[in-house]
Amino acid sequence: MGSPEQYLEGSPFDRFILTGLLAAGLIVLLARERRAGTLLRANGPILLFFLYCSVSVLWSDYPEVAFKRWIRALGDIVMVLVILTDTDPSAAVKLLLARSGFLLIPLSVLLIEYYPELGRGYIPWVWTPYFTGVATEKNSLGFVCLVFGLASLWRAFEVLRIGVRICGVGPLIAHGTVLAMTLWLLWKADSATSLGCFLLGGGLIAVMNLPGVARKPAAVHLLVVGIVFLCLFGLFLDSDVGLVQAMGRDTTLTGRTAFWDKVLDMTVDPLFGAGFESFWLGERLEEFWRIYIWHPNQAHNGYLEVFLNLGWTGVALFGLVMIWGYRNVVDALRSDPEAGRIRLAYFVVAAVYNLTEAAVKAAHPVWIAFLLAVTVSSEPSRREDV
User: Fold this and answer.
1) N or C end: fewer C-beta atoms under 10 angstroms in the chain?
2) What pLDDT is stored for residue 167 in this prediction?
3) What integer pLDDT is reported at residue 386 of this predicted model?
4) What contacts 24+ positions apart, CB below 8 Å, involve 340-343?
């Protein structure tokens, strides 16, 4: 990861690429000005959260760095708007997920199996190998598999529901192959959070494909509350129930509980936090890197991460986004069950994933999937999906 100074400055190459993508996205949205404006007005809680994030740059110890990171985070909103302002948002989402999955998942297998110098890494202090594929570390490979593996599972169920005679066997073979590769990669990556969330999200998609379930809000509420409660109970309230051990981890969540205690010992403004993505900067980062040889740059809990950076105000606003977003997801299940299934899976997976990893951050695939799930989209046209 380099030195704290390098982490502070970031990569000029990444900055150049992201700036180009942001500019391209803004150009597209300007051409779709009316649809973009309608979509923005319909998604006030998300805009309010991002507005507060921008204001929090003012009290960061490194306002220039925080502002650059906020611009990067703004790119997530821009790209989501580009997808959802398409004349057929549903088809645009399917194309995005399918094409990305068909590229990243097989390429990861290729790199791991045949180009180990690119698809593998080594833990320097023990020289133990780990598998990265197209990512830079194993947890990154895990969440890539999580997001795009669920998308292929969703499309496979869609083909089975509509019928192979109508859709053809090709889509089923393609998505089934990607799904098999995803499971292999999750096993190789040994990312317990991603694997657990994949099984959880896959189970949700399967249940939501049962006749009539998706259109029954009471059944959806009961299922979601049960899943979240089970995860909270198994991870935090009574880790002896076997949930953590079943995923191959110990009751300390691989040292996370002690790490969280250490993080909470650091002094930040409880109401407003350290400023947007500013906690892991400067003296705090240097101290943690002196203590931990694996050089942490996140709290390994998304809700704790929001608190550290944005305080209780940020936590409250993020909670508003989640409550409002869940309502949108349930409404989508009633009006458009096909799209609602993947939206519910992404929403619940993001909520659970953030219990042991921090995904509420710029350019994180789980965060982008969450935004796609909760954002109110425009009405689709009659154009057929491709």
Assistant:
1) C
2) 87
3) 34
4) 340/208, 340/214, 341/154, 341/157, 341/204, 341/205, 341/208, 341/209, 341/214, 342/93, 342/150, 342/151, 342/154, 342/205, 342/373, 343/372, 343/373, 343/374
Q: Say whether pLDDT at 245 is over 90.
A: no
Tell me the pLDDT of the chain averaged across its residues.
90
Summarize pLDDT for 99-157 with one digit per residue, the tens: 999 999 999 999 999 999 999 998 776 778 899 999 999 999 999 999 999 999 999 99
Please list, in sequence order, all residues whose beta carbon lies within 8 angstroms of the beta carbon of residue 276, skipping any fewer than 6 positions away: 53, 54, 56, 57, 60, 66, 69, 70, 73, 309, 310
**Mean pLDDT over residues 202-212, rounded?**
94
Tokens encoding 99: 């094409």
Two tokens at 283? 């003296």
pLDDT reported for residue 124: 73
Torsion of CA 346, 219, 244, 322, to 10 degrees: 40
SS (H, E, C) the chain: CCCHHHHHHCCHHHHHHHHHHHHHHHHHHHHCHHHHHHHHHHCHHHHHHHHHHHHHHHHCCCHHHHHHHHHHHHHHHHHHHHHHCCCCHHHHHHHHHHHHHHHHHHHHHHHHHHCHHHHEEEECCCCEEEECCCCCCHHHHHHHHHHHHHHHHHHHHHHHHHCHHHHCHHHHHHHHHHHHHHHHHHHHHCCHHHHHHHHHHHHHHHHHCCCCCCCCHHHHHHHHHHHHHHHHHHHHHCHHHCHHHHCCCCCCCCCHHHHHHHHHHCCCCCCCCCCCCCCCCHHHHHHHHHHCCCCCCCCCCHHHHHHHHHHHHHHHHHHHHHHHHHHHHHHHHHHCHHHHHHHHHHHHHHHHHCCCCCCCCCCCHHHHHHHHHHCCCCCCCCCCCC
Which tokens sit at 35? 């649809």
Of 200-209, 302-311, 370-379, the least confident: 370-379
- The confidence band for 11, taking pLDDT boundaries of 50, 70 and 90, is confident
How distant is the alpha carbon of residue 220 from its chain centre?
Answer: 21
